[in-house]
TrEMBL record:
Listed PANTHER family: RENIN RECEPTOR
Residues making up the signal peptide according to the UniProt record: 1-29
Keyword set, alphabetical order: Cell membrane, Cleavage on pair of basic residues, Endoplasmic reticulum, Membrane, Receptor, Signal, Transmembrane, Transmembrane helix
A Gene Ontology term for the protein's cellular component: endoplasmic reticulum membrane
Designated name of the protein: Renin receptor
Keyword Signal included in the entry's annotation: yes
One MF term in the entry's GO annotations: signaling receptor activity
Domain of life, source organism: Eukaryota
Function in brief: Multifunctional protein which functions as a renin, prorenin cellular receptor and is involved in the assembly of the lysosomal proton-transporting V-type ATPase (V-ATPase) and the acidification of the endo-lysosomal system. May mediate renin-dependent cellular responses by activating ERK1 and ERK2. By increasing the catalytic efficiency of renin in AGT/angiotensinogen conversion to angiotensin I, may also play a role in the renin-angiotensin system (RAS).
Length: 362
C-alpha cells in the first residue's frame, strides 16, 4: 500500500473517530458544557438548547442573582435559597463547535450563537459586594482585552496579558511548553504561539489562585470570563483536517479539564465552571472595554493599564455633606443679603442710632 493511501486512510479514521465522539456525547454543533458544579447547583442532563444571548442570565442564576426576564429553560433547576457558589468561571472557545471533554456535569446544544459579555453580572457582583471587593476578571488574550475589579487588581497584577508578555512568558521557567505534547505544533509559527499563549494564561491563573488561596474563603462570589480564539486562528491557517488543529483540540480539551478541576478544588468544591464552544459568532462583538493598548490617554497616570481611580466608599457621605452644606450657606447668604437690602439705617443699625443720639446731645 502506498504512502498516499495510508495518509488517506488515517484521515478517514480520524474523521470517523471525531464523529463517534460527537455521537457519544449527544451534542452536535455549538455547545455549552458544564465542567464542574456543586451539588446545590442542579444542572439536569438533556438536549435542551440554550440561546447564546441567555448565557449571562444563566451565569447570574447559577450565582444566585435575579434577572430581569425569567429563564424558561429546564436545564437549570432552582437550588437552595441560602447557598450560592463561591465562583463562576466561563471559558469561551472560538473556532470549534465541541470538545471531547471526558468528564462533565452536563452538556447542551447552543443555538443563536451571538456575541455576549458578562458585564451585567460583573456590575451586579460589584454593586452587591462592594465592601468585600470580590474578584472580577474578564480576559481575552488574542484581543489583548483586560477588565479587572476588586481584588483582581492585586492578585493578577503579574498576569501576562499582552501577546508580547505571554510569548515572553513561554520562554521562562514553568512554561507549558515543557509539559505539553506539541506534536505537529511549532514554537515559531505565529498562530501556534497564539494558541500556546492562551494555554499559558490558563496555567498562570490557576498558579496565582493557588498562591492566593484566601480568595476562596471570603463571602463574596468571584467571576471569571475568558475568551480563547487560538483554535480559530489555527483553523483559518491550517484547516480543520490538519494535524495542527487536531493536536491543538486535544491539548485544549485536556487543559480545560484540568483547569476546571483545579479551580473547583481551590474554591472548596463550590465553583461553577462552564465551557462554551462556538464555531463562529453570527455577528461581530461591539462593546466598550478597558484595553491595555489604549495607552495614549490614561485616566489614572499611576496605573499602566488605563484603569479608573479606586472607588472610595465614603464618596456618598462626603458628597451629601458638601452638597447640603453648600445649600445651607447659599440660603444664609440670600437671607443676609435680603435683610441688608431692606434695612432702615436709622432704626436697625446701632451705629447710626448712637450717632443720632450724639448729634441731638450736641
Amino acid at each position: 500500500m502506498s504512502l498516499t493511501n495510508l495518509r488517506r486512510m488515517e484521515a478517514v479514521l480520524s474523521v470517523a473517530f471525531v464523529l463517534c465522539l460527537l455521537a457519544s456525547t449527544g451534542v452536535h454543533g455549538d455547545s455549552l458544557t458544564v465542567l464542574q458544579a456543586p451539588e446545590f447547583v442542579s444542572f439536569q442532563k438533556g438536549d435542551w438548547p440554550v440561546s447564546g444571548e441567555k448565557i449571562p442570565d444563566l451565569v447570574a442564576l447559577t450565582m444566585g442573582f435575579s434577572v430581569q426576564e425569567d429563564l424558561s429553560w429546564p436545564g437549570l433547576q432552582a437550588g437552595p435559597l441560602f447557598q450560592r457558589p463561591r465562583a463562576n468561571v466561563l471559558v469561551v472557545v472560538r473556532g470549534v463547535d465541541s470538545l471531547a471533554l471526558p468528564q462533565s456535569v452536563a452538556s447542551y446544544p447552543l443555538e443563536n450563537p451571538v456575541p455576549f459579555t458578562l458585564d451585567s453580572v460583573a456590575e451586579t457582583v460589584h454593586s452587591l459586594f462592594a465592601e468585600d471587593t470580590p474578584v472580577v476578571l474578564q480576559l481575552a488574550p488574542s484581543e489583548e482585552r483586560l477588565y479587572m475589579l476588586g481584588k483582581a487588581n492585586a492578585v493578577f497584577e503579574d498576569l501576562p496579558v499582552t501577546l508580547q508578555q505571554i510569548r515572553a512568558r513561554l520562554s521562562q521557567d514553568g512554561s507549558v511548553l515543557a509539559s505539553l505534547p506539541l506534536n505537529s505544533l511549532s514554537r515559531n509559527a505565529e498562530a501556534d504561539l497564539l494558541f500556546l499563549s492562551e494555554v499559558q494564561v490558563l496555567h498562570d491563573i490557576t498558579a496565582l489562585l493557588q498562591r492566593h488561596r484566601h480568595l476562596a474563603k471570603d463571602h463574596s462570589p468571584d467571576l471569571y470570563s475568558l475568551e480563547l480564539s487560538g483554535l480559530e486562528e489555527l483553523s483559518r491557517l491550517y484547516g480543520q483536517d490538519s494535524p495542527q488543529y487536531r493536536d491543538a483540540t486535544a491539548i485544549l480539551a485536556s487543559v480545560l479539564q484540568k483547569f476546571g478541576e483545579d479551580v473547583y478544588g481551590l474554591y472548596g468544591n463550590s465553583a461553577v465552571v462552564e465551557v462554551v464552544t462556538v464555531k463562529t459568532f453570527e455577528a461581530p462583538l461591539t462593546r466598550k472595554s478597558r484595553s491595555i493598548l489604549q495607552s495614549p490617554q490614561i485616566s489614572n497616570p499611576g496605573s499602566p493599564y488605563n484603569l479608573a481611580y479606586k472607588y472610595n466608599f465614603h464618596y456618598a457621605v462626603v458628597f451629601n455633606i458638601v452638597l447640603w452644606l453648600m445649600i445651607a450657606l447659599a440660603l444664609a447668604v440670600i437671607a443676609i443679603a435680603y435683610n441688608l437690602w431692606n434695612m432702615d439705617p436709622g432704626y436697625d443699625s446701632i451705629i447710626y442710632r448712637m450717632t443720632n443720639q450724639k448729634i441731638r446731645m450736641d
